[in-house]
Amino acid sequence: MRLSRLVSSGPRATWAFGAVPLALALVLALGGCGDSTDKRGEQSAGGQTGAPGAAVPPLRLERVGFEDLPGWRAEDFEGALMALRASCARVDGQPEDRAIGTEAIALTAGDFATACAGLPDTAPGPGADAGAVRHFFQDHFVPYRVLGPEGAEGLFTGYFEAELMGSRMRTDTYDTPIYGLPEDLIVADLGRFSDDLAGERIVGRVEGGRFVPYPDRGAIEGGYLAERDLELLWIDDPVDVFLLQVQGSGRVILPDGEVVRVGFAGHNGRPYRSIGRVLIERGDLAPHAASWDGIRGWITENPEKARALFAENPRFVFFREVPARTGPGQPDGPIGAQGVPLTPGRSLAVDRGLIPLGLPVWLDTTRPGESDAPLRRLMVAQDTGGAIKGAVRGDYFWGHGDAALAEAGRMRSRGAYYLLLPEAAATRRRAAPSS
């Protein structure tokens, strides 16, 4: 099955927008101050005093010991060091006082210096002695339980990287294009015109001396970009191309076996609309049948209506070819929001407004599906996503291929996680006043 990673939760993209949980994407494409001190007297985010009636801060940290991390002693760390090494490379060489944290959790590049310099050379794996790696983390980091307004439990979903079959040339088999970014597409930063609009952007083009919205999906797929030499690749399945746009990044396998990775380059500025929700509203699918299999089945039975269904989602995504990364011992996943390649089973998307990217995270949840089997392992916060909001919220990167799709599509698990703060940052927190 060559499915695109049906995003995590809306158009994700390990992309410039970020991650969208696949389980939620199945709904989207088809269709989350009390006492401010922790138990050791360290001030948590926001500096609230816990006065009666005070607002509950969006994130609090409670210092714990490594013995409090469920399953810590059983971790094998396979792939964990590779993921952390990629994040360390991102901060290496930056000024030590450069802020890389959040308003809730203050961190600097210098906080990571000692730990990153001391990363073990060992490559732990199943059956290997992980003791040295475990001691490394215990010597350089301090664990903190993360609590949101609702407590320590939150939602964890999964996502994967899309995989499609394609060609660099158009043929009878490969006849659906993936487009590069058009030269007439303009992103306007409204914050340059008014401080009240800081952070707001709109997308459009100039027509007759006026700035107008960029054409929607229907117009683009109807030929607006024809004969402009913007086709990056040609794909054998228009459904996969649609899902790639929901996903925001993916792998394209060429006829000779070469793998080309494409990543998010921009979009037409139109709002995203769930085609699954459209099918439900029209009565074409029952809500319980609006899974990806249900949607693809409907399209298979109604191929002449597929294009009109896709046009119900006016957003159109453009791509760029991402250079291959072949360094020894380096992850080869799509680029996450931290700017590093993601590691299957070790990269976690978080709310970057609350959780600093690059931090090790101990995850305590359950495996996808109906099982109560625990999923406990060391992750690294390396990505984000439009639907990944809140203190206790994560999107688990499963990799690519059918097995990854199966796990990502079923994952909607409740659980908790713990941040591993570098010792220097933990020391500052201990020294901070408690009120």
Automatic annotation (TrEMBL):
One of its GO terms (biological process) is cell wall organization. Its EC number is 4.2.2.n1. GO terms for cellular component: outer membrane. Keywords: Cell wall biogenesis/degradation, Lyase. PROSITE patterns: PROKAR_LIPOPROTEIN. It catalyses: Exolytic cleavage of the (1->4)-beta-glycosidic linkage between N-acetylmuramic acid (MurNAc) and N-acetylglucosamine (GlcNAc) residues in peptidoglycan, from either the reducing or the non-reducing ends of the peptidoglycan chains, with concomitant formation of a 1,6-anhydrobond in the MurNAc residue. It holds the Pfam family 3D. GO terms for molecular function: hydrolase activity, hydrolyzing O-glycosyl compounds; peptidoglycan lytic transglycosylase activity. Residues 37-56 are annotated as: Disordered. Residues 163-320 form the Lytic transglycosylase MltA domain. This is peptidoglycan lytic exotransglycosylase. It comes from Marivibrio halodurans.
